[in-house]
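Collaborator request, handled under Task 6.
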Amino acid sequence: MHEVWFQATENCNLKCGHCAYNFGPGGETASEDTVEAVVEALPKDTFSFSLTGGEIFTRKQILVHALAYAAVMREERFPNAKLALQTNGYWVDNPEETFERMRTLFELGLDFLCFSGNDKYHEEHDIDTSKLRFDPKIIADSVRNSSNSTSILETAYLKMLATYGIDSFPSSFYVLSSGIDKGVYPVGRAKHLPSEELNMHSVCDITRNQTNGRSELLVDVRGDVHMCIWKIPPPIGSVHDAPIDVLVEDAMKKPIYSILALGGPEMLAKVFGLYEQSDIQDMFYRFSPCYMCEQVFAKLAEKS
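Structure tokens returned to the collaborator:
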């Protein structure tokens, strides 16, 4: 089972202090050839394919091309996949325009529209989070009782339900609007946030996914495939060279990734003898797995 995130652009209209990728205005965008290569490389057992950035709505031509191409190829190549899109929601300004954009995405084949801008970090960059409020209880009550909604996003979504005759919630076109409620991962620019705002007790994604029997992968604008969505370990290959499932299978034959999958960066540091045992234990208890992984791969790069 594969969940694949595709960073179709590194361009963003904002330059947030909590960004895990150091993205902002002027970032690179994938070519149409890369978009098609990514879609064609998706494994047959892909259950989720998400378009993200950067801010994908700043590059609408690539957004439309990627979503339309994925929708066309889905039936033949990855029939059980849900198509998702993540945005900070800067474009949600009035109900009618928001509805029209939702309708376009739905008709292109989108299943999930995820808003990530509903938090204090985006408010600092003039995102009006009141417009992005989306309460499933309000939606469900409105469907049953025709009560009035209170946010622009809720109003636009209710019009979607009415327009397409969907009389239940959740529907075949699902909206999620959320912010950060468990701390920010300490990667990218977020490393400079106050420690109390960081999630220091996370589990290595590669280890967690191995335990769950699935893989969560990220493909960047160049088509390079990363087994960690934070892109800390080096990429395992390119979609221009091989399908994603082949790249994953080959990567797991290498000691670095097989050890990461079994025991995370702590085990990797032990097996390769990168630190004294006491130092490894100190890093494990004081720092997040992401920080430890960065240090381990920096050491590995020095040795090579």
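The cover message to the collaborator said: "The chain has two domains: 2-226, 254-303. Residues 2-226 form a domain with the TIM Barrel fold (CATH 3.20.20). Please let us know whether this matches your experimental observations."
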